[in-house]
Design a protein that fits this description.
Layout (H helix, E strand, L loop, with lengths): L1 H35 L3 H5 L2 H31 L2 H27 L1 H19 L4 H13 L15 H5 L13 H4 L16 H11 L1 H32 L6
Length: 246
């Protein structure tokens, strides 16, 4: 009976740690992508705010990877050492996730300020000049139905307007679909999107706060269950006397 109980705990513990391992790989990929491949983030945020976010994603991914590896291997080999490592790392990950969550909630204004600075500079100096800047701003304006970082006046005196035939020209993405194909978006266009993108993005994130909190709590609960399972597994393997040191 105890053997069946141990097998059941091992199976659940293995599945949870496998899920953590897969999620951690995805988190590391996102972090590396933010640092190396994607120039879009650099165009929408002030440069100094991207590096900490990317590094944090990579570090949490590495910790999660080690947790998944030690948990899966520890369960399969019935290794007390690996299970203890898994237990300690899981506690570290939970603490890190809570700290990141609190940090994000307390520094939301700083993130908005960083985005306002970064996007304003991009609109003034780089929109229409580089592919990355143009595509990242267009994507934000089309997705969140906005124009400019703060408002449409961010395009006043921009390189884009200076080089355009009409002095009041605006990007097609600042107007509705009726003008996107004609290239005639301006301050007088009926379908002009007057709101700024930073506020639109912020409002969109705030509207999903509850979902994000619930998902975060669910993840932490699952991880705490894994902590309890690791303790049970260590206890059961130790009492059976059939454990492996490594």
């Amino acid at each position: 009976m105890a053997s069946h109980g141990t097998s059941c705990v091992k199976c659940i513990f293995f599945i949870v740690n496998l899920a953590v391992w897969i999620a951690s790989v995805g988190l590391m990929v996102i972090g590396v992508w933010m640092l190396v491949e994607s120039t879009y983030f650099w165009e929408l945020f002030a440069e100094e705010s991207i590096m900490p976010m990317a590094i944090m994603a990579i570090l949490l991914g590495v910790v999660g990877f080690l947790i998944g590896f030690s948990g899966c291997c520890g369960a399969c080999k019935e290794s007390i050492c690996l299970l203890v490592v898994n237990f300690l790392l899981m506690l570290l990950l939970i603490s890190g996730e809570i700290a990141v969550g609190v940090l994000v909630l307390n520094n939301r204004a700083d993130v908005e300020e960083s985005m306002t600075i970064g996007m304003t500079v991009t609109i003034k100096e780089h929109y229409g000049e580089t592919k990355a800047a143009t595509e990242s701003v267009d994507f934000a304006q089309q997705t969140f139905h906005c124009c400019g970082a703060t408002n449409v006046s961010d395009y006043d005196g921009s390189v884009f307007q200076t080089k355009s035939i009409h002095g009041d020209a605006l990007p097609d993405s600042c107007c509705g679909e009726d003008t996107e194909s004609t290239g005639s978006c301006s301050y007088m266009s009926p379908s002009l999107k007057p709101g700024g993108c930073v506020k639109s993005i912020s409002d969109s994130i705030k509207s999903n706060d509850l979902t994000a909190v619930l998902v975060g709590l669910a993840a932490i609960i699952v991880q705490m269950i894994a902590v309890v399972l690791s303790c049970c597994l260590i206890s059961q393997i130790s009492s059976s006397g059939g454990y492996s040191v490594v």
